[in-house]
Structure formats: C-alpha cells, structure tokens
Write a structure and sequence with these properties.
By secondary structure, the protein is mostly helical. Helices cover about 80% and strands about 0% of the residues. Its main location: membrane.
C-alpha cells in the first residue's frame, strides 16, 4: 500500500514472539491461580485491599490472554487490543473506588494476619512475573501494557503488606482503605498510559482497505 511504512503491518519480531508467548502463558497461569486465592482470602478477611488485588489478578489474567491472541497480528489490531486493556484497567480502578467507599461507610476492620500472608504470596508471584516480562517493556503498546500491569501489581502487593501492618498496629480499617485507594490510582494511571500509547499507534497505523 502506498505511503505505508513496513512497521505498520509488522507483527511482533519473530525472534521475540516465542519467548514472549511462553512468558505470557506462565503469567496467565500465575495470575489465574492468585485470583482464586485472593478472592477467597479477601472475602474471609473482609479486606478491600485484598479484594482489589484479586480483581486485579483476574484482569491481568484476561489481559495476558488477549495479548496471546493478538501476538501475531498487525500493529493496528494490537493497538486496538491495548485500548481494550486500558479500558479494563480503568474500570478496575473505578470499581476499587466504589468498594473502598463501601468499606469506609461500614467501618470494616480486616484480619491483618490473613492480609499479610496472602499479600506476601501475591508479592512473590508478581515479582516473578514482572522479572519475566521486564525484557519486553520497550515494545509496542500491547507489550508495554503487559509490563505496566505486572509492575503495578508488585507495587500494589507491597502496599497490601503495609496495610496489613497498619491494621495490626492500629486495630482500624483505615490502612486497608488507604491502600485500596492507592491501588485504584495505580490502575487509573496505568490505564491512561496504555490508552495514550495505543491511540498514538492507531494514528500511525493505516486503516484496512475497504472491501471491493
């Protein structure tokens, strides 16, 4: 097509794709398993931060699945997938804000011991995923969104551990609420970065030719 650069249609580098695909499958399995662990622990402990982190694990598992699906597609399709992932992260942030307000109004005090144990397990899982995906952080918006998700998760887990310590020390739910709010901010910030990067790629990528 006239006026189109080669990179407009080029999928992920063939030398990178097998390694990235393998890393995404491992990340998908880890995130799905941790979602099941944290959703149960969050309900049992009455922790807004753990429930927020559980939903984050679920969203990331879905995002890694989308990334696997679009890995060999054109830049335009991958950018469109990134827009979807950015919107998902934004929705997650809004859900956490609503849930945090609910916990604030009900005055729930979560179980600090459960928060600490599960938060530590989640941190180990997310650091492993982030280390695996670090090499792909400078790719297109789709690859960058995967890295941003894993980075935000590891930061969020550190905050959950801090909240567990705060709940244990104060006997109140305020540290849990504060951490849930921080995680919402991370999700909204990450969503904005992904959407901005994807929209820039969509402006560069050519539109598909109309059917004859």
């Amino acid at each position: 097509m006239a006026g189109c650069c080669t990179t407009c249609h080029t999928p992920v580098d063939r030398r990178i794709a097998p390694r990235l695909r393998k890393a995404l499958w491992v990340a998908l399995a880890i995130n799905a398993a941790m979602f099941l662990v944290e959703i149960g622990a969050g309900v049992a402990a009455g922790s807004a931060a753990l429930l927020a982190d559980a939903l984050d694990f679920f969203g990331d598992a879905a995002n890694y699945g989308v990334s696997l699906f679009v890995l060999g597609l054109s830049l335009r399709r991958r950018a469109q997938a990134s827009l979807l992932k950015g919107a998902t992260m934004g929705a997650f942030g809004l859900w956490v804000i609503g849930n945090t307000v609910h916990q604030l109004l009900t005055g729930t005090v979560p179980a600090a011991e459960v928060m600490g144990a599960v938060g530590l397990a989640a941190l180990v899982a997310n650091v492993a995923v982030a280390a695996m995906l670090y090499a792909f952080r400078d790719g297109d918006s789709n690859m960058r969104s995967v890295w941003i998700c894993s980075r935000n998760d590891a930061i969020g887990n550190l905050a959950v551990l801090g909240a567990a310590s705060g709940v244990f020390a104060t006997g109140t739910g305020w540290p849990d609420i504060l951490v849930a709010a921080i995680m919402a901010g991370l999700a909204l910030s990450g969503a904005a970065q992904i959407i901005r990067h994807a929209r820039a790629e969509l402006r560069l990528a050519p539109r598909p030719a109309p059917a004859q």
